[in-house]
Amino acid sequence: MTDVFDNMIMHLFVIRIGKVKTQVWRVAYGLLVPCIEKMDKPYISESTSLCSCSFGADSQKIFIKRIIYASEREIVQGIFEDISSGKSLKDSFKIRGLNTDMFNFDVRYSLQGTEYPYGIEDILDSQLTYIKSVSVLEPEQLLEKDGKLPDNVDNTITVIEDFLQKKTKLPFGEKFDHMGNMDIIIELDRDPKGKSLVELQWKKSPPAYQHIKVCKELLANTSKVMVNVRFADDRRVLGDRIQYKEVEGEDLSFDFEADKGTSYIETKVWIYHSSEYHLIHHAKNYLLTNISVTLNAVGDRLSVTSDWLNNIREQLPNKKADELKEAMCIERSSKEHFVVGEKTERRRRRKSLVKTNDEFFPKGWDADTDTQGMLSFLRWFKQKTNGASGVFLQDPYFDDIAMYFIGSADTNCEYTILTQTRLKTNPDGTANMGVVKSGEDSKRRNKIVNVIKINPLLFMPMKLVIKDIPITNNVLHDRYMIFDYGNDHIEAYMLSNSLQGATKKHPLLVTQIGDLAFEKIRKHIDETIDRASVETIYDYRDKKCEDGTIEKNKLQPIADKGFYDWLVKQKEIMLSGNVADILSDICKWNTNEKMATFGFFLAKIYDEEADVILKGIADLMAADTECIRILKDFILTTHYSIYPIGYIETPYRGSIYMDYTRFLEMNYKDIVTNLNTYCIDYLSEERNSFGVYGQYFAAKLLIKVSPDDALDVLKKLRPTLLNIKEDRTISPVFKVTQMLLSEMMKAVVWHEDSKVMQIMLNDTEAWCKGIGALMLLHKVKLDEFNAEEYKSFIKEDDEIATLCLAAWEMDIESKNKEIFYKLLRDLITRKAEKKFFKDILSKVIESISLAKKKADFIEKVALPLISQGFTNKDDLTDFIVDKLYNTCIEGSHVYIMRESLIMCIKITRGNTNSLIVKGQKTLENFEKDIAAIPVKNDYNIFHAAEAVIQLRQLLLLFIREYHKTNMKDKVKCLLGKVDKSLDDHGLKNTKKI
Question: Which pTM value belongs to this model?
């Protein structure tokens, strides 16, 4: 088979165990493949220490090196065969008159192998490969030393296989068990450069057909070609056809009309040689009929804590701490799933349940497998709920621990729990086999209700339904877990233990239920749930527990009913401006209850009326320091009171989609960003009041009367909030801080009261100045706002730079943006440090902002600095090319970076030779990478070419934008080289991208 190739290249990977006097290395793997160019002398790599292996008390290092030699086929193949038959490498070279001076060692193939003729082996996806091997059954003999194998022989073999896989791109350790072999690998349908000589193309125009082109380079030693194409859908073959053609010295083309409904095409090409047909190409292609897209809008992350997670923490070693931390976190998310090209109802077929997804989770901590049973089960459960529209759980002993378990997964799907609370459980949650007596309350039922009541932030957002089956003639026993993913995709499982007892005393076995059994189970479940005697403990659609507690709380929002009735009667008097009596009454006695009631009163009248009353009270309080002290004390001391005075047991979740309290633990540069200005857009009236209106209106009053004192309250709340290590969002201090901070920002953003902003900008603490600067950034979006008046508030150089860069990213009026540009230019000129300027420029051009914004920055900031002589256009151009070039040819934002690079250097008008130099280097690296792949397939070639493909797009963009420059010819020349290289390696179609 090798006689069709002129040149071949040999790769020998040789190893040595320890440092020995006899410099004889052993062949760990030998590979012979076709190539194009010859080598003057062999390439010998430096030896690399791979690992250590132990022979009892003796530890030895394993060294490996690579020898590569390419020449005429007869020479290289002769050397390869000599080595595989036992001759040394030096002796084989000397027989052929080749120089051996470069070898200060020798190589021998020491293993006993069996020679196999050429055969097809599926080692690379989508590539037909013929292999002729000297194959060994016991490659571990390669590691023998003094007749002994190392103690850790399996680990050592794995390390060597990983090295071979990296260097050859062959799947060692997966489906290529060839360590110790001497292989000749031939790809008859590719030339030595990797270009495919059989081209397949699917034509959709009616009638649809498969087009096959066999290049003439394949047909030199054959007289006839046979092509077989098979069309199929998901279940059956639709058509199986063969065509023959005589070779006439040119490319051959074949067209096969496809059958309707084809979703899978298999193509085989044979050539007639030496009186028989040889298969040279075998490809399987699937036609894409639809694309599934899932959009996931993520909100805040919550940290879940409970006794069962704490117990797991005590069992875990330190190295698993991060894994537990991740398991304790859940994200509020909203998912939307849709399919492009989805089948109609008529064509959709029901999918059978998969029957091979059984799982086993060990009891407690399993040191052998490095696994914690419950933690692994929780991870599996999270994966299964991801994307599910509904989850059903039948668990007769469902308890509070199981509640926390399901609360730790995806909150977007609907959970239906079927349990039997009158079955008794042991203290650890496992089955007791007893029954609660008639007339007694079920403790387990009460625990489930209380868990929901005391953790509203965790369970209220969940679509949770819990149903309780009374004890009658039937008692639940089996545990089922069913995941419904829509489109008739259902997975059903049976659990060996209940959730709360799983992996505590016994391992947990999760067994998937097949489709026939599942249909019967589903019928049984439907009949059970539909019984009239089944009670609902909790249903998210009602948002209330079975004992009506939440409903009762909703009926008690007024702390002082008599005072509320009086306020209603005094409404018109207060609207006329007479509020002194009301303020005096609140401050004299029963202040906390009256403040809470006054807040509820204001929440129930029109906003315009509430504003009038608040203004009147604020005017009176401004001159009374005692009233200000009462307001501060009310917020600081009573926020931890029972609703409606404080936040404990408030029935209202409020909205924490945007957690503003996170700014309190951030530094200035992390707060002052364009992204964070959008957080302020989510401010709205009463959104963060949590229904505790006394606190809410007390904060509004305090901000109106004394912004300094409002900031003082915020500073006093901050340490308590930041010291909370678990889920702080359920704590009263979080709610009052979130409310106060959002009201302070609303005073600036909505009510055009800049006092709060000025106070925070003048503060000494970084977080406080950062929030003030964030408010300023949000204000500059407004047309009528003049940022010039606030420049003096930002004094530190780093803070000025951070603020100006954030303003640059924003879409704001040109007059305000120019103010920040000038502020930044003045700063750079004043500091007179080129490194400072380049650091700022790097942040701008390396960001993923639109190219137009970056070009505007270059024009408004960099060009004036060039005019001033601070920098020059050539240095600036080289700097931009150096920073952006790599991101233009690799990464996930190449399109933006390409546009950015070309638009920026077009403005600087400097010398662009550095771009040509980098492009030539990329092309050279591509050729080297391709040459380093011994056995090529479509994936390896395309992966190596990704940078060159992107380089081509960059050069095309350069030519389009620089159509009137002398550099255009140089770029065109480089583009021609890139095109030729892609064509040579069979990547012509990538130029259509």
Answer: 0.69
Asked whether residue 780 is domain-assigned, the answer is: no
Residue 378 placed within a domain:
yes
Number of structural domains the chain divides into? 5
- Same domain membership, residue 267 and residue 130: no
DSSP 578: -
Q: Are strands 365-366 and 371-372 parallel, antiparallel or unpaired?
A: antiparallel
Say how many C-beta atoms besides its own lie within 10 A of residue 329's C-beta.
Answer: 12
Answer whether 280's CB lies under 8 Å from 221's CB.
Answer: no
Integer Cα distance of 165 and 178 in angstroms: 11
pLDDT digits (tens, 9 = 90+) for 874-926: 999 999 999 999 999 998 899 999 999 999 999 999 999 999 999 999 999 99
| Residue 842 in domain | no
Q: Quote the CA–CA distance of 14 and 29 in Å, as a whole number.
A: 7
For residue 113, give both structure tokens: 């192998």
Euclidean distance between CA atoms 702 and 695, whole angstroms: 10
Give the domain-ending residue among 516, 551, 586.
551
Range of the domain at 220: 198-286
Distance, in Å, from the CA atom of 303 to the CA atom of 229, rounded to the nearest integer, reads 57
Q: Could you give the CA distance from residue 643 to residue 557 in angstroms, rounded to a whole number?
A: 7
Contact in structure between 218 and 198 (CB atoms under 8 Å): yes
Contacting residues for 73 by C-beta, under 8 A, at least 6 apart = 2, 3, 5, 6, 7, 8
One domain for residues 632 and 745: yes
The kind and range of the H/E element at 453 are helix 443-454
d(CA 267, CA 286): 12
- Written as six digits, the tokens of 5 are 């190739």
* Domain co-membership, 569 together with 536: no
**Token output for 9:** 């290249």
- pLDDT attached to residue 354: 47
pLDDT of 514 > 80? The answer is yes
Q: Where are the beta strands (DSSP E) in 36-168?
A: 43-44, 48-55, 58-72, 106-108, 114-120, 130-135
Which residue, 159, 186, 213, sits at the end of a domain? 186
- Taking each continuous run of H as one helix and of E as one strand, the counts in the chain are 34, 31
269 and 410 assigned to the same domain: no
